[in-house]
Write a structure and sequence with these properties.
Blueprint lengths: L2 H22 L3 H6 L13 H26 L4 H30 L2 H23 L7
């Protein structure tokens, strides 16, 4: 697998995962995958729905990071390395936090799968960081 394909796969998977979380946060099926009970009707300040709001923000952030990774494939060597380094740092932190939450809060396969998606995105960021520009890579 070429580096460009790896970065494309990582960025796409990250974007798609983020958009699914953004669009389905609060949905009983998605929430159940992470061990949540059925939520009461939406109400401002209700703890479950406050959590859903943060899940939506998290989904938007994942999708945004994926979009940046996809766009970085077209940058010059120095720019791609800089973006790859920043992505790697942010995604490594996100992986750590997700692993902690998967162990402490979710305790479900979905939590571990989400951590795996973010870890794969770290590998894509390493590809950007090491290879520089992928615009002409094979």
């Amino acid at each position: 697998m070429t580096r460009k394909v790896l970065v494309t796969l990582s960025g796409s998977l990250l974007s798609i995962s983020g958009l699914i979380i953004l669009g389905m946060a609060g949905n009983a099926a998605l929430m159940g995958l992470f061990g949540s009970q059925v939520l009461p009707p939406p109400q401002a300040g209700e703890p479950g729905w406050v959590g859903v709001a943060f899940a939506r923000v998290f989904g938007a952030a994942l999708a945004s990071l994926g979009f940046v990774m996809l766009a970085a494939r077209q940058l010059s060597d120095g720019s791609a390395r800089a973006i790859g380094g920043a992505l790697l740092g942010g995604l490594a932190l996100l992986t750590l936090v997700t692993l902690i939450q998967a162990e402490a809060i979710w305790t479900t396969p979905a939590g571990w799968a989400l951590a795996g998606v973010i870890m794969l995105a770290c590998v894509g960021a390493v590809g950007l960081r090491q290879s520089g520009s992928l615009a002409s890579a094979q």
